[in-house]
Design brief:
Layout: H1 7-37, H2 40-46, H3 53-67, H4 69-99, H5 104-151
Helix pairs in contact: 1-4, 1-5, 3-5, 4-5
């Protein structure tokens, strides 16, 4: 199999790789931090008395702002995949125009770039959206645990 790609496709792959690293970093940073909050003792150290709405908002606001980057990264990854598709198809038609003939050999390089950048974009976007939903639900679960802690004092 020929693993050569055009320069724009390589640049798109590099950007998508950076987006995937960022997505994994945000996800693991948030989830590992929230894992500690599942323990009642740790929660009681952070909130020794019942928190006010303002305190809860101040506590959860940075987490919610951070996870909002995940769908943004997913959208950018999908758009970069689409950009790679357009560039690949454009290069395929450019090669056809240059050679003055229509053949599979002429179209293959551009179509390959188009499909590979689309696949790479989706491989970054789908986990990013999953990570966002997972982290969002984890934050909701922790906030429910905090409500339970103070509604049923033991």
């Amino acid at each position: 199999m020929n693993w050569t790609f055009s320069i724009p496709a390589i640049l798109i792959f590099i950007l998508l790789f950076c987006f995937s690293l960022t997505s994994f970093y945000f996800f693991f940073r948030i989830v590992l931090g929230l894992k500690k909050l599942e323990g009642k003792q740790f929660r009681s150290e952070i909130f020794p008395k019942e928190p006010t709405e303002t305190e809860l908002e101040l506590f959860f606001s940075p987490l919610e702002r951070t996870i909002q980057w995940l769908p943004t990264l997913a959208s950018l990854a999908m758009l970069l995949g689409l950009l790679g598709t357009v560039i690949g198809i454009n290069s395929a038609f450019g090669a056809m125009e240059t050679q003055g003939k229509v053949s599979l050999e002429v179209l293959a390089g551009g179509i390959k770039d188009a499909l590979n950048t689309t696949i790479a974009g989706l491989l970054v976007a789908i986990p990013s959206l999953y990570f966002h939903r997972f982290a969002e639900n984890k934050i909701r679960y922790i906030s429910e645990l905090l409500v339970k802690d103070f509604s049923n004092p033991q």
